[in-house]
Amino acid sequence: MDRINTAFLFDLDGTLIDSVYQHVLAWQEALDHEGIELSVWRIHRKIGMSGGLFANMLLRETGLAISPELLERLRRRHAEAFRGLAGRVRPLPGAQELLSHLTAAGIPWAIATSGRIETARSGLEALGVDPDTVPVVTRDQVKYAKPDPDLFLAAAERLGVAIETAIVVGDSVWDILAARRARALSIGLLSGGYGQDELERAGAFRVYEDPASLLEHLDEVGGRR
After folding, report:
1. How far apart are CA 28 and CA 36, in angstroms?
2. Among 13, 73, 138, 144, which one is most buried in terms of CB atoms within 10 A?
3. What strands lie across the sheet with 109-112, from one edge to the other?
4. Are 155 and 108 in contact, with CB atoms under 8 Å apart?
């Protein structure tokens, strides 16, 4: 019987780069600019899902009327504010080493992020990832983002692997839910601010602190050749 090889599909923000709180502050600035008051903790709980769904849920919590024009203004303001904070974004501990190890071992990997390329580009540069040579799927390339499975399905297709043989690595419940809907196993990381119990309840079969911890335990989750 042929051995099934594992591929890894990574979220970006909070999984490979330390950018969750920059996104929170950028969304807060966008909301403030529209005169919408919302607690920062409520914003944080939505990070990781698609921008459109994220804005819809936030506005639903405020009871305000939602219009496509308002959503587009929020998206653009968020992207502009995030670019102003992008200089503070750094790779999470072990992220670059993890990706280098997978590459050296011949283990396929890709990145699938709910962010658009306009906000993802700075994080990819910080990681040293070139989207022209590494499979990177962004919100611009799929119809629906997380918690829908489209991003991870597209990433698996780019790698030429069956989604059932892939492991999704993410930091939010939205990543884990999208993985379940895609029929992939998932690993949760604590580096985005969600707790271990939340990630496990969403469906993660293992939870580690950050990419460095995952690299240390990679052989336990099928990451070997």
Report:
1. 9
2. 13
3. 136-137, 109-112, 7-10, 166-170, 185-189, 206-208
4. no
Indicate if 20-87 has the same CATH topology as 7-19+90-221. no
CATH entry 3.90.1150.10 includes domain 7-19+90-221: no
The structure tokens 């990145």 sit at 111
- Phi, psi for residue 10 in degrees, rounded to 5: -100, 135
CB 122 within 8 A of CB 129: no
CA dihedral 117, 127, 79, 26 (to 10 degrees): 150
Question: Amino acid letter at 180?
Answer: R
Q: Return the active site residues.
A: 11, 13
Taking 3-state DSSP, the helix, strand and coil percentages for the chain, each rounded to the nearest 5, stand at 55, 10, 35
Instruction: Classify 20-87 by CATH class.
Output: mainly alpha
